Amino acid sequence: MTEKREQAERESVFILEAARLKFGCGAVEELGWDLERLGLARIFVVADHGLRTFGILNRIGDILSSAGIVATFFEDIGIEPTLASFGRAAEATKGLDIDGFVAVGGGSTIDTAKVANLIHCHGGAIMDYVNPPIGAGRKPPSPLKPLVAVPTTSGSGSEATTVAVLDLPALGVKTGISHRYLRPSLAVVDPELTRTTPAGVTASTGLDVVCHAVESYIAKPFHARPRPANPDDRPPYQGSNPVADIWSAKAIEFGGQYLVRAVRDSDDIEARGAMMLGATMAGIGFGTAGVHIPHACAYPVAGLRHEYRAAGYGGDHPFVPHGFSVVVTAPAAFRYTYDAARERHAQAAKWISGSPIDRPGPDSLPRALIDLMRQVGAPSGIAELGYREADIPALVEGALKQQRLLALSPKPVDSGRLEQIFLESMRNW
Ligand SMILES: [Fe+2]
Question: Residues with beta carbon < 5 A to ion ligand 1?
Fold first, then answer.
């Protein structure tokens, strides 16, 4: 193949579609005004029931009613959404005369609203839209109704992304639905809403933010992908590109600078606000560029064993919070990817640790990350989450199912490499 033809078959285009963002203490007080501006008079509110305890949902109810907005609340959200919990939300919208959706809660809540909106607008079964090969990968034929996302945790970045993550316990995998029509029309990010978030939740979600940002910053560049046959086939996760880099870089810096403070003191609104903004910024970065090895490994890590009890998550069922399931394999993954993008790894290490790195090498970024994990009380590795070496083949098999993500790794990853990464991740310290 000639060099010219080879170049012609590489991607040469990237696209940035970011959610509109309103940020700051008190931003939620303007929710009525924002909904009116979007023409939403009758809305379906998907909300985390736990927020009732803190008076947040009553406050939002008051804000909506004083703006004359008619709201139907739905609060039956799964911590890790399943087909059944998405289905219940979609079912609850049936026959309702609504103009749009509002989601109030963490990533699971926002994802539930995205899927309820999709099925409400276009019908069909949820699996029709789930990413292939697990689902049929059907694309929504036209835009959905407006969705306004009000995140109350600073992690998933779901308020800025095109993705809804779905747990399929029967298959032992997590997958999702991704399409640009799923992206919220507006993210209203109010740091005051995280004041009640427990330290353990802030730690896990904050480490998720750092991983989103680092993974997208070091992802395979967009121009290394094959050119799609038509624009509709261009994946939402396009690979790193100069615009996503800006968002990802800033989010890494915020994680290094503010996460420890945000975990240690729930009244440190400056730090909690920075982590919320960081989560949304990382959401814009990875929502465009994509995540890879740690997130691919996180699916089986969260899915296969349910023994870990995380502080701060309440409830009595053991599970691995998403951020912890991601970060445990990140040091080993970044050690492996180092030589594909040395400067970027060194830069990320510098932002996380907040100081220049002397003689950067494969261990610089893993060391900076491990230091942060220890300071915020993260589990030390997959052993602490209940895994033994005998579980590694099953973990590898689960991670290999996430080819959509693994394709964005800056270095090729096969089963032997994943085995090595899981082995190194048994204990990070
Ligand atoms: Fe994540």
Answer: 208
